[in-house]
Amino acid sequence: MAQFNSYIDCLDLTAATDFCREQGTPCHYKKGERFVQQGTIARHAALVVSGYFKVTTLNDSGDDAVVNFAFPGQFITDFHSSLHGEPSQMSMIAGTDCDILRVQLKTFREFLSPSLLDEYSSLFNMVFMRLLNLYRKSPRQRYVELCEQYPRIVETVTLKDLSSFLLITPNHLSRIRRELAKSPATNIKK
After folding, report:
1. 105-112 and 14-23 helices cross at what angle (nearest 10)?
2. How far does CA 93 lie from the centroid of its chain?
3. Beta carbons of 42 and 36 less than 8 angstroms apart
4. CA nearest 101: which of 47, 58, 176?
């Protein structure tokens, strides 16, 4: 299965993963706890060991809108916030109970410094493609594509978080799922 965060496929993060495994402090986050809080400067990076984190930003209503996920084997942090000393524009919230290996972001950043530009370039491309898909595809098309590319996401991520990521209401997602369940041509887990 492809990585949900496809920019990772363009990078060799073996050394960074090993660094977190050797230097990281094991930490447990309960569902709903925040690793990064929007409006603060990120101070840590972490390797997700179990569970998942959702990356959110506050919408005009003051609700968290899901913009990304981080699953086991992936990193969480806000490099931009730390690099520029600016308050983070996002929060990273445990979507389930999670275990991570946490390191000081300053130390991690120094360790990774040669590859940061590659990571930013790959990340930009992934985010830009997701933005284009918001304009090019219907919510149903985006949901089907998401389920085809990442079949286990429906088992892992709450429907509320998936609907937020797709920029639709939970009711709209339920309608899409019901329609797909009636369609004999789909192999999507409902």
Report:
1. 150
2. 10
3. yes
4. 47
Q: What is the pLDDT of residues 91-130, one digit of tens each?
A: 999 999 999 999 998 888 777 756 554 665 566 566 756 7
Calculate the CA dihedral of residues 97, 78, 2, 98 and round it to 10 degrees. -10
User: How far, in Å, CA of 46 to CA of 99, rounded?
Assistant: 10
Mean pLDDT of the 157-172 span: 92
* Residues near 56 by beta carbon (within 8 Å), at least 6 away in sequence: 38, 64, 65, 66, 67, 90, 91, 92, 93, 164
Q: Note the pLDDT tens digit of each residue in 51-86.
A: 999 988 887 788 888 888 898 988 888 877 777 788
Helix/strand/coil (H, E, C) string of the chain? CCCCCHHHHHCCCHHHHHHHHHHCEEEEECCCCEEECCCCCCCEEEEEEECCEEEEEECCCCCEEEEEEECCCCEECCHHHHHHCCCCCCEEEECCCEEEEEEEHHHHHHHHHHHHHHHHHHHHHHHHHHHHHHHHCCHHHHHHHHHHHCCCHHHHCCHHHHHHHCCCCHHHHHHHHHHHHHCCCCCCCC
φ and ψ at residue 69, rounded to 5 degrees? -135, 155
